[in-house]
Design brief:
The protein is of the alpha/beta class. The protein has 13 helices and 14 strands. α2 (47-55) crosses α12, α5 (128-149) crosses α6 (163-172) and α6 crosses α13 (336-360). GO terms for molecular function: L-malate dehydrogenase (NAD+) activity.
């Protein structure tokens, strides 16, 4: 540099500075490339609570653009248009597109995640078989549309009740979908159990972990705290040790979680749309992005025979997730009380499966 003249030296320094700035800008641009949008399908009217959460990143992350497809029945077409208008009016930066339709083929085209909230609710005077028959027809048709038009690796979450059996029907009529890609929502029950423990102990819900929901998303489900823990100032402590009341944990705690949905309907005169939507986001987020180390969650998944549960049921297990895959937590000790509860809810699912197949025939 000492051989350069008085004019050349500043020019060289300026050139070096310019090249450095270009390099930094290139690296910064590379690191901040916007991700390709993920297309999420939401069916049914609880979707009104769910779609803004998805659009704002609660399901797939704060930096993940999304395209939302909404599917509903023909009588709800105008209301669906209104939801689309509201999403547009919200001007959410992550939202890259909205499709609102009553056509299952259009709704399923290219979707990466499907959240199946729509279903036929049980009405006064209806038998279980009547409700099952209606839902079998709905999920048979939607399974066909998803299999033919969704992305091959599409992840499916069934929320509509009976959630476990609806998911099983969907799996039966989308045979090319991997069994691991079809799940049902028991995260709502899992979160309810976390909430009950946190209130009982007066601790933050984020400090409670590893409750388990076994079985059916119904009044036979088994909320289990035998392996649950709380992070305290003195380290991790078991929930049973801290609650120090087995009578409450084995009775009132279980029935409160089992019947929480009915209690909310009684109080609100409406179903628990907000908490169901939030839990659906939690379910998919952990499935796609992974569960925290040392923590498991509850998901309704296809049984492989773990814990003596009949293979071929969609049953809620404790699972961990990594790289978009869930795995059932193995090796948990099951006492006699838990065994009876787990088997009772499995028995109900076997009966539901038989009922669903009789509707098909």
């Amino acid at each position: 540099m000492e051989y350069l003249g008085s004019i050349e030296k500043p020019l060289v320094l300026l050139g070096c500075a310019y090249l450095s700035w270009k390099l930094v800008k290139h690296i910064w641009g590379f690191l901040n490339v916007e991700k390709d949008p993920i297309t999420v399908l939401v069916t049914g009217q609880i979707g009104y609570a769910l779609v803004p959460m998805i659009a704002r990143g609660a399901m797939l992350g704060p930096d993940q653009p999304v395209i939302i497809h909404m599917l509903d029945i023909e009588p709800a077409a105008e209301a669906l248009k209104g939801v689309k208008m509201e999403l547009i009016d919200a001007a959410i930066p992550l939202l890259k597109g909205v499709v609102a339709t009553t056509d299952a083929v259009e709704a399923c085209k290219g979707v990466n995640v499907a959240v199946m909230v729509g279903g036929f609710p049980r009405k006064e005077g209806m038998e279980r078989k009547d409700v099952m028959s209606k839902n079998v027809s709905i999920y048979k048709a939607q399974a066909s549309a998803l299999e033919q038009h969704a992305a091959p690796d599409c992840k499916v979450l069934v929320v509509a009740n009976p959630a476990n059996t609806n998911a099983l029907i969907l799996k039966e009529f989308a045979p090319s979908f991997p069994a691991k890609n079809i799940t049902c929502l028991t995260r709502l029950d899992h979160n309810r159990a976390l909430g009950q423990v946190s209130e009982r102990l007066d601790v933050h819900v984020g400090d409670v972990k590893n409750v388990t929901i076994w079985g059916n998303h119904s009044s036979t489900q088994y909320p289990d705290v035998n392996h649950a823990a709380v992070n305290t100032a003195a380290g991790e402590k078991s929930v049973r040790e801290l609650v120090a009341n087995d009578e409450w944990l084995n009775t009132e705690f279980i029935t409160t979680v089992q019947q929480r949905g009915a209690a909310i309907i009684k109080a609100r005169k409406l179903s628990s749309a907000l908490s169901a939507a939030s839990s659906a986001c939690d379910h998919v987020r952990d499935w796609v992005l992974g569960t925290p180390k040392g923590t498991w969650v509850s998901m309704g998944v296809y049984s492989d025979g773990s814990y003596g549960i009949p293979a071929g049921l969609i049953y809620s297990f404790p699972v961990t997730c990594e790289k978009g895959e869930w795995s059932i937590v193995q090796g948990l000790k099951v006492d006699d009380f838990s065994r009876a509860k787990m088997d009772a809810t499995a028995k109900e699912l076997v009966e539901e499966k038989s009922l669903a197949y009789s509707c098909l025939n």
